[in-house]
Amino acid sequence: QVELVESGGGPVTAGDSLRLSCAGSGGTFSQHAVAWFRQVPGQEREFVAGVSRGGTKTTVAESVEGRFTVSREYAKSTVYLQMDSLKPEDTGVYYCAAVPVLPGKIVVNVKEYQYWGQGTQVTVSS
Question: Pick from 10, 55, 85, 100: most CB atoms within 10 A?
């Protein structure tokens, strides 16, 4: 069993930066791929960024490429989402999710994720 807790969200102005954190607990968190998703009311949860088990591979959605970076720090069992040059369309609830995988694999399909955090709200005003 893995538990995930997100933090770092809040209200910001367009052009600002935020860093979200996803703290994982449970003995096997290091054996999971982790991703960030975001959701706005009335829309499906959208993949934002993901990191592989082992942290050797990362990927981000085209809509945030060049602005968002995902990384993981094993010593702290934490995955980060660095968000720069934020835009109003980045507003939403950001969730981290984890799924056990083989080393080096990134998972982008929301349906494949087994564990979810409670979410953290990011609001970007123009």
Answer: 55
